Amino acid sequence: MRVDAPKLHALAEIEQQLGGNGNVLEVGFGDSSFLKSLCDAGYSVTGTEVSDWMVKETQSTLPQATVVCTDDPSEVEGEFDAVCCFEVLEHLTNPQAFASKLPGKTLYGSVPDPWRWYPKLTGRYEYWDYPPNHLWRYCLCSPVERDHHDSECILKERIKNSDGPQVMSLKWLLGQAGYDQVTVHQTHVQPQDVLRIIPIRKNAASYDQMRPRGKFRLIFSTAKRVLAPGTYVASSALNVMGFHGVSYYFTATRP
Questions:
Q1: DSSP string of 53-97?
Q2: Could you tell me which CATH class the domain 5-253 is placed in?
Q3: Residue 151, class by beta-carbon neighbours within 10 Å (0-12 exposed, 13-18 middle, 19+ buried)?
Q4: Cα separation, 243 vs 118, whole angstroms
Q5: Is residue 215 predicted with pLDDT exceeding 60?
Q6: How much is the pTM?
Q7: Would you state the pLDDT for residue 120?
Q8: Domain map of the chain by residue range?
């Protein structure tokens, strides 16, 4: 299973921070690939997910991890040396309240980069980057105004008359949650980024609704296998041309 670029960066930084010994929480663990990487590295791992089927699947495939079905990270017991939250904040009605409930002082995470390769190349966003799946797109403006970002925000102007998500400054959001040190990086294009443009899954509000079932699951897995060789060439070319991957990777700390 391929690990996304933000998770690879987080693994390296957590290793530098903790050295393979500590308690790590992943909020919204999804396919559990990152949980597995943390377990393999020797950490004591806890994960939360709102999807009941993902929790049950992970309990059977990764019994050494503690997994909890909840949408409230403050319900998770214990103290954590690092907290991870990848591709979650864009789905939430109130991401500010959610981020404020995240435990711990050090956060590693990601959100979709609105200036990633596909929108830059085509002028439009992929099918999954719209409501009801994504409710927010995040800019990197300084949080100087009440509407959460700079008045000259290019992203805000670009989508203000569209049917897309609302725009919020990622730095403003994390600042409101108490994080006073925030670093954000763009990532490189990966082969799996190229596959994400194919509209196989339904755009829905939850992963349970979006996951392929029956014959569609077979079609989805077959399409990935058939197209995989070409995605390596395509992603390499996009990187050479200076494009960026799907996600912003960020780290944040609070007192």
A1: HHHHHHHHH-TTSEEEE-S-GGGS-S--SEEEEES-GGG-S-HHH
A2: alpha beta
A3: exposed
A4: 9
A5: no
A6: 0.88
A7: 92
A8: 5-253
